[in-house]
Amino acid sequence: MSKKWLIVLLLLFSVRGYSQTLTLKEAIEQGVANYGTIKAKNNYLSASQESLKQTKTDYLPNVTLSAQQDYGTVNGQNGPLYGFGGYGVASSGLPLPEQNWNAAFGALYLVNVNWEVFSFGRIRERVNLSKAEAERSAKDLEQEVFQQKIKIAAAYLNLLASQRLILSQEKNLERVIVFKNIAAARVKNGLLPGVDSTLASAEVSRAVISLNQLKDRAKEENNKLVALMGVDIRDFTLDSSFVRRVPNAMLSNTSALNPVLQYYKSRVDAGSQALKLYKKDYYPSLNLIGIYQARGSGFNPDYASNQHSFTQNYLDGINPNRQNYLFGLGLTWNLTSIARASKRVAAQQYTVSGLQNEYEVVDQQLKTQLDAAEAKIKFALDNYREAPRQVRAARQAYLQKTTLYKNGLTNLVDVTQTLYTLNRAEIDSDIIYTNVWQSLLMKAAAAGDFDLFINEF
Hints:
Elements: H1 3-18, H2 24-34, H3 36-56, E1 62-72, E2 104-118, H4 122-188, H5 194-229, H6 259-279, E3 285-297, H7 314-318, E4 322-332, H8 336-406, H9 412-447, H10 451-454
Antiparallel strand pairs: 1-2, 2-3, 3-4
């Protein structure tokens, strides 16, 4: 192969790579990966999963370790004392006749265990509620991904239809220009009146305007697809190889549960689980407590009778020489919480009923959409069979009228009428072919089975 041909092939390859065709599957993959709302709901799901892990730790007891080393006096006094806001000094010693400023080191070491060993099912229901909320977040993500796929596919088909309409309108413009040139030549030769050339020029302008309107619409559809895919603004070249065939799954049945309906069902389940948890507030709680305490002091045991019996040595003051322990069970029951819980339960019951109502509304909407999709498929298939016949008849009529016009056997009005008919037939054909796929997409959206649509590609 010569160097010249090698350069030509490289140029052709580079041009093809630059104008790469965007397939529907690629558009969906990019849209699902890039769309901000899906990213957000992925994070919400992760947050719900972490909250579930945190809730499970409620089964563990509370274990508190405490150590303090202090320096101060131990003057005591008979009388009541309450530390408002938690402020107070735990200095202890016998009340003496007068104040003194003897000070020494002291220390306190503490281990405290508080375990709600029996909560009448509150902890279990809190875990179940966290599970239900995590499931709701998962279903929310699934339905968002599902709807995003449907939106991208619909935007893809709309843009593809717009691009095909542009091609049909460009062919119509070419026909009008050829027709104008024929009319101008015949007018120049004196075979036709001058008005024919003027009317033909008007038809060219009309075709140009219609083409520009279609390009404007295609640009809007292109940018909608850009937004749904979450990519930089660009003009897409779409794959149209599938448009003229009928999908194999047009008449297939599906038993999939719609992800949107599953999400609304998960909201009902989470609300019902919250109701179970609120009802547990009627019951008390049983706690197991255990404390171990060690204490050191620089004041000697006979300090009460001899106020000189103390040491300011740091190590002697913090060395623990007294220990105490305590074990016990505690039952707590706030009786007034029953009245508060009853109102909370009543409010949640109304909330669950509202969520159930929303679920039923969505269920009914999806059933009607599925019925409409089945009807749309039937009509789309009927139109699909009729479209080629319409185009063939329109082309034949146009060919006949233009031939007669060239031979002076018909007028411009008759030719223009057949031109309109052919243009409309080609546009109808493009729309009908796209409607076949849009009807299948509508069925997939209503049935909740996107594979029904995407497996055709």
